[in-house]
Amino acid sequence: MGAKTSYMSDKPEVQHQQNIEIPVYISFTAKVLKFISPVLASRFAARLFGTPFKHKMPKRERKMDQESHQYRMKLRSADKEFVVYEYGSSEDRILLVHGWSGRGTQLSKIAERLIEKGYSTVSFDAPAHGKAPGSQTQMLEFIETVILLNEKYGGFKAGIGHSLGGMTLLNAYNQGLRVDKLVTIGSGDKVWDIVLDFNLKIGLNHDIAELMVDRFNEISGVNIHELSASIAARTVDIPVLVIHDEDDRDVPLSAGLNIAKHLPQAELMTTSELGHRKILGDSRVIDKIIDFLK
């Protein structure tokens, strides 16, 4: 592993505690279904797991939204669309990938600095996210979206991914994404940990999580465990900057550390008191990204 830039305090690592509130009726329904049929409970959980929340665009993202060229593309694997954002006019394009329940303008502060430095950005609303239609999606569709954009633009100077976006880029690189460098910010790591954590949050258990994974593997033909970021990282042979905050309540710092550990060419930046989303607008973080891309 390469150099490490640290802004950590002396506080102990925050344990994994996904910062979501589950409505009582959802937990009640999940528990009733578990009593009736574990299979029904697992399918209920799977549908919830694949349903992102759509949040109102904050004011700070409006400039990018108003000044970018936007158009729609379709997946090959399903009758689903995603919305593409072209921001800036430079041929040196950077691909930006949002996380779960995010949108193509979520990395707007990073995008604006990249424009200032002579780059342009390509980002997207994944299926069922932002302005894209639909209510259901999953990680494989994020990866497919990136691969389709890679084909359209002939590769990118770099890719920057937040949360699920980081996991997506690492997997997409192993499926043909052409980039010189990658940056992950608050990336998740082990898919099993994410699935199990979700099931526990809605009042289900390990057995239901296993049923969910088995069904996903059967339907997709993909071993979900192989999509884990630290597994994908092993064959990513380009420089990767891994950025993670020790106070991230959605994804634990241990995820970022494990990803960096398995990358052949990793540089690690740890921060504190920025959490999972504030980190996207932090000036030190953006400065580090710009320096890394140089």
Please give a handful of descriptors for the protein shown.
about 290 residues, alpha/beta, Rossmann fold, 11 helices, disordered N terminus
Descriptive report:
The structure is a single chain. The chain is α/β, with parallel strands linked by helices and 294 residues long. The chain has one domain (4-19, 68-191, 228-293): Rossmann fold (3-Layer(aba) Sandwich), CATH 3.40.50. It contains 11 helices and 9 strands. The protein has helices at residues 24-36, 38-49, 62-67, 108-116, 139-153, 164-173, 191-201, 206-220, 229-233, 253-262, 283-293, and strands at residues 4-6, 69-74, 81-87, 93-97, 120-125, 158-162, 181-185, 240-245, 266-271. A 9-stranded mixed sheet has the order 1-9-8-7-6-4-5-3-2, with helices on both faces. It is globular, with a radius of gyration of 18 Å. The protein starts with a strand and ends with a helix. Mean pLDDT is 92; it is low at 1-18.
The coarse overall form would be globular
Count of β-strands? 9
Strand order of the largest sheet: 1-9-8-7-6-4-5-3-2
SSE run: EHHHEEEHEHEHEHHHEHEH
> What percent of residues adopt helix (DSSP H or I)?
25-40%
Structural category: alpha/beta
Outline the biggest β-sheet.
Answer: 9 strands, mixed
